[in-house]
Amino acid sequence: MASNSSIDDLLEQAQLAAQQGQWSWLAQCLQQIQTLSRGVPDMTVAWSESSPDCRYQQLLAFALNVLEMGDFYDRWEITKVFPAFGTVAIPALVEILQDADADWELRWFAARILGECNHPTVIDSLMGLLQAETSQDEELTAIIAEALANLGTPAVAALAELLTSSTTRLVAVKALAQIHQPEIIPPLLAIVSDPQISVRMTAIEALSSFSDVRVIPVLFAALDDPVASVRREAVIGVGLRADLVDAGQLVELLHDRLQDANLAVRQQAIITLGRLGTVAAATVLFQNLTHLETPAALHLEIIRALSWIRVPESLSYLRQALLQYTANSSLTREIVVALGRFKQPELQPIAVETLLDLCYSSRYQGCELEIKQAITVSLGELGHPQGIECLIQLMADPDLSVQLHAIAALKKLDFGGTSRQYLQTLAHDTSVSPELRQTVALALQEW
Fold first, then answer.
1. Contact by Cβ (8 Å): 279, 313
2. Backbone phi, psi, residue 249, to 5°
3. Which of residues 150 and 200 earns the better pLDDT score?
4. pTM of the predicted structure, to 2 decimals
5. Fewer CB under 10 Å: which end of the chain, C or N?
């Protein structure tokens, strides 16, 4: 057990550290005093908020000095000491929050400390400050909201009261959104039709994180919100809550949003359908890919979404798209990249065959460099031995980067040394062109 003399020595060191402005040292002294005082009865009293002991006030003053004058690390360390002061430290911390001249970091630390003090006094103080300052200091309201959110469930009722006022509703809903507890669902459900766009968006985003059937009607209604940003948030939400919705109904709802007047909403609907991962979703995506009214800007998104749906139908749609969009180099490249993701045993051979057909076709000669590189990469990703011969031919491509990509892909296909043996055979085959033999020699050197 620590002695009073040990603590007295630390108090003297703390006094010296404060006089010299050694804030790291002072924080360390206070932490040691806090640790040692747990075993000393009279020092425990000194930490008590009801104690008139002057040492208590001195310790609190020291802690506030570190908080106000120290660097980030000092402030971080001193936050560990403040819980020992109980509610007595609250007025000083609230005063720091109110100080418009204080730097943001200091105010943030004060709010952080308050947010870890689960006491009604803290909630009352923060709520009073929030109601007084909402329209005057956005930075302060954000910090206070974060502190209230850190208090968690005990702060829900107080924050719900702020939802009744239009001046405090936005900051209150933002704070509630950070409390990931089901208690926030009822107050948020009450404001999903609020006139303020930001309020509706924040409420919908927060509700989407809960697997609760009460959320679904709200998300469905928000899909038809007059504001595009809200509709987009609802599209994200129904995707997150696909576990509570019939898959067919969800595809139908998202199909409607694929016709949305806003491009960002349509893009999000594509992403959500891709993550849904069903055959019906793949079919709707391909229909929109081939639809004449679908903007070209969305074509790449649709290809990416199809690549996430690892079913035979999706692979078939990509094969069709590869034949249909021969003149679109960026789309061709994206399809080639997408094919490299179909690694399931039942789909892998079909994906490889599609890439080989492109590689051996007359169309390959007119392909841009990035497409040729993508072919080699996808063949390497698929890792099927059927791609070895094609990759060796690609090693003879006039462009060095294609050759190097082919070599890298071959290394991935070197099952039991098969690729290396094949290259060694070619290196001594006089019927092979000098250019290919030179590349083969380079490959063996790089192996």
1. yes
2. -65, -40
3. 200
4. 0.79
5. N
Residues in the chain: 447
Question: Has residue 47 got a pLDDT over 60?
Answer: no
Say if residues 394 and 406 touch (Cβ distance below 8 Å). Answer: yes
Type and span of the H or E element at 156:
helix 156-162
CA distance 424 to 406: 16
Cα–Cα distance, 131 to 225 (Å, whole number): 30
C-alpha dihedral (83, 84, 90, 91), degrees to nearest 10: -150
User: SS3 breakdown of the chain: % helix, strand, coil, rounded to 5?
Assistant: 75, 0, 25
- Mapping DSSP onto H, E and C, the string for 57-117 reads HHHHHHHHHHHHHCCHHHHHHHCCCHHHHHHHHHHHHHHHHHCCCCCHHHHHHHHHHHHCC
Q: What is the C-alpha to C-alpha distance for residues 48 and 86, in angstroms, rounded to an integer?
A: 7
Domains of the chain, CATH where assigned: 192-285 (1.25.10.10)
Phi, psi at 81, each rounded to 5°: -90, -30
Among 165, 161, 159, 154, which residue's Cα sits nearest to residue 144?
159
Which residue, among 287, 277, 214, 230, has the nearest Cα to 250 in the 3D structure?
277
Tokens of 76: 């971080």
The Cα–Cα gap between 364 and 358 comes to 6
Question: Do 347 and 312 touch, CB atoms closer than 8 A?
Answer: yes
Dihedral (C-alpha) 74, 75, 79, 82: value to the nearest 10 degrees?
Answer: 90
C-alpha to C-alpha distance for 139 and 107, rounded to whole angstroms: 10
Percent of all residues in the chain with a pLDDT value above 70, rounded to a whole number: 90
The token pair that represents 283 in the structure block? 């079919």
pLDDT at 380: 92
> Which of 342, 324, 340 minimizes the C-alpha distance to 374?
340
Q: If you average pLDDT over every residue of the chain, what do you get? A: 87
Count of CB atoms within 10 A of residue 19's CB? 9
Reported as a single tens digit per residue, the pLDDT across 91-113 is: 899 889 888 788 889 988 998 89
Whose tokens are 């003399």? That residue is 5
| Residue 48 pLDDT | 52
